[in-house]
Every structure is written in C-alpha cells, then in structure tokens.
Design brief:
Blueprint: E1 2-8, E2 20-24, E3 36-38, H1 50-57, E4 59-67, E5 70-77, E6 89-93, E7 102-104, H2 116-122, E8 128-138
Parallel strand pairs: 2-3, 6-7
Antiparallel strand pairs: 1-8, 2-6, 4-5, 4-8
Length: 150
C-alpha cells in the first residue's frame, strides 16, 4: 500500500540535520529548519486515512522523495505507540524517539544524507516534490520501543 504527498521546494531548504527529516504543510521555512526538505505538503497526519496510519504502526516503511527527475529513499519503521497527530509536521527519525510529529523511527538515513543534486532541486520553489510512503513489510522486533530524546 502507498500514499503520495505532494509538496514543493523552497529557497531555504538545507537538508543538513544529522538525525531527522521533516516534511511540513507550512508554506515557508527559515534557515533554522535544517531538517526540512519539503514545504506546502498537501497531506499531513490529519489528512491521512486511519487505516494507512495503522499500517505504518506495524510495518517497515520506505519514504521516497522525487523532485525534478531525481529520486532518493529512506527506510524506517513504525511502532504501535506512534500518535501521528501533529497538524503541520511529519518527522522521520534515525532514533527511536516518538512524539506527535513522528512518522517513523529507526530510519537508515537523515536529511544530511540526501545527495546534493536532489537537495539543489528541492531548493527551487518552482519544483514540486512527490513524497511516496510505501509499506514494505512487517515491523522488525529487533528494536524494542524506547523513548530516547534527541
């Protein structure tokens, strides 16, 4: 099962954070938001079908970013305790920290791992960004739930 979010680029996208990636429904971002890679998203947690959120909670998930003919993916997993309630922001985390903004945990990459060519394309406000959330398998039990803060 898949869900595609459409967002756009922004001049201030830096993709420099070492542990997170953020997608926001907000139309703008400052240079301080160094984990944000897409703005103006058409779907947030409140728009996401409940059945899809439930699938994320028990699954391994792949998030694929496509922009200007370039593509990059990050894999992680959901947990049964993910609230997925924030109205504007969704965050992918390398850690196991969970809050209302968390989309998935134990991600294999962060925004700083994005290749320069896709980051450059995401810095153009005219470029649309397609973000596809794909369920790729059942959640592994290798990572017990922890509530570590980052």
């Amino acid at each position: 099962m898949e869900l595609t979010i459409t967002a756009r680029g922004h001049d201030n996208i830096r993709a420099a954070h070492k542990t997170t990636i953020e997608i926001t429904k907000d139309p703008d971002v400052t240079l301080n938001g160094d984990c944000i890679v897409a703005v103006g998203a058409d779907i947030g947690f409140c728009d996401m079908p409940g059945a899809f959120k439930e699938m994320i909670r028990g699954s391994k998930v792949r998030v694929t970013f496509s922009c200007a003919g370039r593509e990059w993916s990050v894999d992680g997993e959901g947990t049964k305790k993910l609230a997925m309630l924030h109205k504007q922001e969704m965050v992918i985390r390398k850690s196991s920290f969970e809050c209302a903004r968390t989309l998935m945990i134990n991600a294999d990459k962060a925004s700083c791992d994005m290749p320069d060519d896709i980051v450059s394309s995401m810095q153009d406000p005219k470029n649309m960004i397609n973000i596809t959330l794909s369920i790729i398998g059942p959640r592994s039990n290798k990572h017990p739930h922890q509530n570590n803060h980052i």
